[in-house]
Amino acid sequence: MEQRDDLFFMRRALELAALGAGRVSPNPMVGAVLVCDGEVIGEGYHQQFGGPHAEVHAIASVADEALLCHSTLYVTLEPCAHFGKTPPCSDLIIEKRIPRVVIGCRDPYSEVAGKGIAKLQAAGVAVTEGVLEAECRTCNEAFIKSHTTGLPFVALKLAQTLDGKIATSLGASRWITGEESRSEVHRLRSIYDAVMVGEATVRADDAQLTVRHCSGRNPLRVVLDCQLSLPLESKIFDSEAPTLVVASSLYAGSPKAALLKERGVMLLFVDEHSGKLDLRQVLVELHQRQVLSVLVEGGSRLSASFIREKLVDKILIFVAPKLFGGDALSAFAPLGVSIPSQAMNLSFGVPQFFGHDLLLEAYVEA
User: Which of 53, 89, 115, 284 is the least crowded, having the fewest Cβ atoms under 10 Å away?
Assistant: First the structure.
């Protein structure tokens, strides 16, 4: 019975954690539920970066504090054990004499990383770990990757036909997918720290890359423009959202760079190899700017470059029930796969429908 209850209440904690999407980065999303005698007496989640943690909100929501010493706290991520922007949650749990804590997964952050669990156990708190661990790790996949690799989590988004085409033979691509899919893309933008495109995509669609079809924050717009060739009139250079242009270091002192800076556009100059920007260096630089997650919305060449350089963690493909045929533009430029064993291996998530379109989610296998 206890194991079944643990699963049930941890699922609720995960639902709460998801409410912080797009609001707490670079902190993790965390949900917490307090249960006494099988009844929920308090709930909370991490609501905004720098604000109180999920455990604090959950404890504060309890009407009768006397119940805390008979309760179980369910939390998706290990309670912190250090002083950051807020005091340690593990200390608060001990202070309130909560006798049992159920944890989804450990916090990889070096200041926590098992220390919160150890502090609770040393104080006599019963700790259960690993309840719905896979789901809890997925909830914070960007935060976990950040603290284990020093790179942002990269999701590659594509909208294509059933036969894998992203534009007709004449280059037309509006609109392959329906309105429901486009609204979901805007929701995705609102929960990723940055959205990235190449200059060809901006030039073809005059892309704005803001969140308009739903509520939520605008991500950092990252444009890979090796030679700073985009016209200053492009919508991407408006003031609707912050924009970072990545170019070759050869153009650092160019007049175009100065004009972009005058418009408030941020610039990042990286190494160039055979006319292509060093994508790994770009990701390293973004991570140093506390960008933990990147949604790549590029065309076939940029998508292929990320795949070839093994920099992708997840692929999101919106598949429309349409056929463009063999003379249309394929979703990926050449990947250098000559035999099947060279192909990138993926594992599918649960497919979803948005209107008539199918969203396929696939994780890159290690």
Answer: 284
